[in-house]
Structure formats: C-alpha cells, structure tokens
C-alpha cells in the first residue's frame, strides 16, 4: 500500500492517494496606449487537474482560442486550454474565473486588479496592479501538521502502517486521530462562524454547539477506527472515510437544527450551504498547492518601477512567477509602472 504524505484532506476527512498533477497557468497581459488590456491565458496539465474545485475561464466571458486534449499516452492524458479576453479601459480586470455555475466566487481563487494611466507634463504613466489574495491555510493545516512527529511519520510512510513496530503504529495512529479531530473542530468552527456573520447566529449558541459536538468528534475518530479502515483494500478506504465525514456533518447539522428553535429546517439548510462553501474553500486551497503561476505584462513605454522581474530585451515588459503554496495565508501583490515620453 502506498501512503500519501497528507493523509487527511481538509474538510473531507478522507484518506486518499493524493498525487495531484501540476497545472501550469501562464498569462500575457498587453496594455495599449489607450489603456485597453488584452489578456491571453493558457493552462496546461493532466485532464484531471482541470476539474472541480478548480475554476477556469469559459465562454461567454472568454474567447476560447484552443482547447486540445492529448491522449497519445493513455496513462497521462493532457489538456491545453488557451483563452483571450479584451478589457476596455475603465473596466476592472477579471478577478476570478469562478461564476455561480463554476464554483463559489467568494471562496475561489481571486486576483483583483486594475490598469490606469494619466498624463503629467510631457509624460504618460501606465500602472498595472493585481493582488492574488491569500488562501487560508494555517488554521486548518498548520496547527494539525505541527502535532505530528515527523520522524515517526517518515518511518510509517516508508515502511507502511502494518510493517512498523507496534509501538510506532500505536503512537502514529494516536497522532493521526488527534490531527483529524482537530481538523473537524476547525471545520465546524468555520461553518458556525459563517452562520454568525451571515445569519446572525448568537455566539453563545456557536460555543454551545461546539461543546456538544466534542463527544461526536472524539468517538467518531479513534485510533482503532482509523486502523480498521486502513486495513481495507485501497478502493474502499476513500469511500469509508467519506462516509465517516458525512456522518459527522449530519451530527453537526442535527445539533444546529436542535438549537434553532422554531426554524430547524431553515437552520439545517443554512448549515449545509455554509458547509459546502467552507469545504470548497479548503479543497481549492489543497488543489492550488500544485499549481504554477506565470504572469507577464507589457506596458507602453519603459518600466520605471516594479516588484517583478524585468525583461532585458523589452523595456516595457515584466513578469512574476510563483506557486500555489506561496498563497498560504499571505497576499501576492503584482505592481508595475511605466512611462512614455511624448
């Protein structure tokens, strides 16, 4: 049995062989003298990397220049998607690829930006700004990861859970259960927090529900139960942990409905909506970890200041390269300013 490095996917509590491919995202933004921006974006990777929770440009907002699937290698079916969009000056640049039909725009990858130009004397200045907004990561993953004994984890991943010593297996399962319990507490806290902010759930009720949920979490996720599931064949492991996650969420929803008083059905529906939004956000953060971003901007004139890498052959061009993991709990701002002397 092969063991993934990250055994518990945020918000899913599923043991899966997580071998996400690398989706590369390249973007060329060319700004005319009138401030109009032409955006050409290209996405390359294995076909599975294009699926949910990833949201990608689509018609009618974007013109599809090409969409090619290469199935010459049956074990690695690849896709290349190339799109274009022209943004007149004064309109905001696209800040997400998600729409109501393709993911939650609030929880999806967001990168608001703008282009503006102005004249000062005999000069015209062009400014490009875009910020890739941080993906929340540490609260759910960072603290949970810090609970693990890394040397022990390495031994288990190298040998397998049933090949290490009984002492190592017992300790590892206890830490694994502790991690999973923590993530479920954080997931519930995030869902209830959304209900507080968006639907006026009293904070005292939130705290009470979390206290009532604790026995469900502790009893559902035990070292013995984890070992029993991990002893199953690989095709059954994911389904079994999906079932465990669903059972826990149903228990949480029941607690919310019990605390609702006169509107249990409405509270249950609001809980489900919040749960889906929070899970989408965390699953997308995981999926983006393997993504590579390459953004290039061409402005009129010559770049005079930027936080990107200048193109030595083109004085008006600048680029930025980063990965999805760079977005963990921090924004990535892109900025460039050029000048044209009339």
Model description:
The protein has two domains: 163 residues, no CATH class; 128 residues. The N terminus is likely disordered. The chain has a seven-stranded mixed beta sheet with strand order 3-4-2-1-7-10-9, with no helix packed on it. Strand 5 and strand 6 form a beta hairpin. The protein has seven helices and eleven strands. It has 342 residues and is α+β, with helices and mostly antiparallel strands. Helix 3 packs across helix 7 and helix 4 runs antiparallel to helix 6.
Which stretches of 5+ consecutive residues score pLDDT under 50? 1-20
Compute the number of structural domains: 2
What form results from the Cα inertia axes? globular
Number of helical runs? 7
Let me know the average pLDDT: 89
In whole angstroms, how far apart are the ends?
A: 68 Å
Please estimate the helix content. 25-40%
Walk across the major sheet and give the strand order.
Answer: 3-4-2-1-7-10-9
SSE order, one letter for each helix or strand: EEEEEEHHHHHHHEEEEE
The biggest beta sheet is recorded as: 7 strands, mixed
β content, as a range? 25-35%
Total number of strands: 11
Cα-atom radius of gyration: 24 Å
The structural class is alpha+beta
């Amino acid at each position: 049995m092969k063991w993934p490095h990250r055994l518990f996917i945020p918000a899913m509590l599923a043991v899966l062989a997580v071998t996400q491919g690398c989706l590369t995202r390249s973007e060329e933004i060319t700004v005319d003298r009138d401030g109009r921006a032409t955006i050409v974006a290209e996405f390359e990777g294995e076909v599975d990397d294009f699926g949910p929770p990833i949201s990608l440009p689509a018609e009618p907002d974007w013109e599809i220049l090409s969409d090619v699937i290469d199935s010459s290698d049956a074990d690695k079916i690849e896709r290349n998607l190339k799109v274009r969009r022209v943004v007149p000056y004064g309109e905001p640049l696209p800040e997400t690829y998600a729409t109501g039909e393709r993911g939650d725009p609030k929880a999806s990858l967001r990168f608001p930006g703008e282009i503006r130009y102005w004249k000062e004397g005999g000069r015209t200045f062009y400014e490009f700004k875009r910020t890739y907004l941080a993906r929340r990561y540490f609260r759910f993953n960072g603290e949970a990861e810090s609970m693990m004994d890394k040397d022990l984890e390495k031994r288990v991943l190298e040998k397998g859970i049933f090949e290490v010593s009984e002492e190592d297996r017992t300790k590892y399962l206890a830490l694994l259960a502790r991690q999973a319990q923590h993530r479920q507490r954080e997931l519930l806290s995030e869902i209830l927090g959304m209900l507080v902010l968006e639907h006026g759930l009293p904070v005292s009720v939130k705290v009470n529900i979390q206290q009532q949920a604790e026995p469900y979490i502790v009893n559902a996720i035990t070292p013995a139960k984890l070992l029993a599931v991990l002893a199953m064949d690989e095709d059954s492991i994911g389904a079994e942990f999906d079932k465990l996650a669903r059972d826990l969420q149903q228990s949480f929803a029941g607690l919310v409905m019990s605390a609702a008083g006169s509107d249990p059905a409405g509270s249950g529906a609001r809980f489900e909506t919040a749960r889906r939004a929070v899970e989408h956000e965390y699953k997308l953060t995981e999926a983006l970890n393997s993504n590579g971003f390459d953004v290039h901007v061409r402005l009129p004139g010559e770049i005079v200041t930027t936080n990107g890498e200048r193109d030595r052959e083109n004085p008006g061009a600048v680029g930025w390269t980063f990965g999805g993991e760079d977005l963990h709990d921090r924004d990535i701002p892109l900025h460039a300013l050029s000048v044209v002397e009339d």
